[in-house]
Amino acid sequence: MRKQIVAGNWKMNLDAAQSQALIDNLQSKTFNDDVHVAIATPYVHLAAAVSQTAHSAIDVAAQNMHQAVSGAYTGEVSASMLKSIGVTTVILGHSERRAYFHETDALLAEKVNAALENDMQIIFCFGEELEDRKAGNHFDLVTSQLTNALFHLDVTSWNNIVLAYEPVWAIGTGETASPEQAQEMHAHIRTVLAGQYDDALAQRISILYGGSVKPSNANEIFAQQDVDGGLIGGASLNADDFTAIVNAF
Ligand code: PGA
How many of the other CB atoms lie within 10 Å of CB of 196? Predict the structure, then answer.
């Protein structure tokens, strides 16, 4: 059985006290034991979040990292720095990074390599924009995002990869892909993985859906055969909503 994962992407929200309070609140909840839970806090809260969650099952992830080992990259953070404070998971390729910070597939391939060199777990995000879907290009676009950023990897490296399909038109818009649209794309992704690698790899990779997942729709999305969890933005800032989503499996 594939690993089921619900990860919260806090984006650029919450100050230190609010972060601590939300984690306290989450730690008072009872989560479905079968689901692996992660929260991606802003960089400045990561170290505190790691120590706060030391005795809980909540994993702490970074929302981004730089591809270089170290050097003159003002404002940036490397994989080894994250590892040194106990952060072993990183989100890469989020559509906001692609759109606002001009991250390309080629750059993301470098970031993926840097994360893997540090044996980090990667939640790799990708997904089409509305124009792609309207033009019927969404399957090809997703195939090219995966091909360009990830298909140089060997089979073993995929032990560290979780995929997160996030149609850009559904992120923070309140508009969710229908369960059927999510399932159809997730099945497509497995077919592409099987073509590039083999069916065993395609069947073992967890593929999360992201984009306006809420307590009210999580259940029907997670019920889809090829959906193994979610990457949750807005709803991850509320402990009750996030818990309800984790427990929607
Ligand atoms: P959303 O964000 O749940 O607020 O739509 C999802 C994401 O960006 O990962």
Answer: 15
Ligand 1 proximity of 211 Cβ (cutoff 6 Å): yes
Per-residue b or e along 157-181, where b marks 16 or more CB atoms closer than 10 Å to that residue's CB: ebebbbbbbbbbbbbeeeebbebeb
d(CA 15, CA 26): 16
Report the nearest-CA residue for atom 2 of ligand 1: 233
Q: What are phi and psi for residue 170, nearest 5 degrees?
A: -105, 0
**182, 165 Cβ separation under 8 angstroms:** yes
Please confirm, yes or no, whether 166 is among the known catalytic residues: yes
Cα distances (angstroms) measured from residue 167 to each of 16, 28, 56, 72: 30, 32, 31, 34
pLDDT tens by residue, 193-209? 999 999 999 999 999 99
Q: How many angstroms does the Cα of residue 233 sit away from the middle of ligand 1?
A: 3
Burial class (CB in 10 A: 0-12, 13-18, 19+), 120: buried
Cite the beta strand spans of 35-88 per DSSP E. 35-40, 59-62
- CA distance linking residue 217 with residue 197, whole number of Å: 32
Q: How far apart are CA 218 and CA 232, in angstroms?
A: 10
Check if 94 is active-site: yes
Mean pLDDT of the chain: 97
Structure tokens at 20: 């601590």
Residues 96, 102: Cα–Cα separation, whole Å = 9
For residue 172, give the ligand 1 atom closest to its CA. 5
- How far does the centroid of ligand 1 lie from the alpha carbon of residue 10, in Å? 9
| Tens-digit pLDDT profile for residues 18-35 | 999 999 999 999 999 999
Residue from 213, 237, 242 whose mutation best tests the ligand 1 pocket (most atoms within 8 A of CB): 213
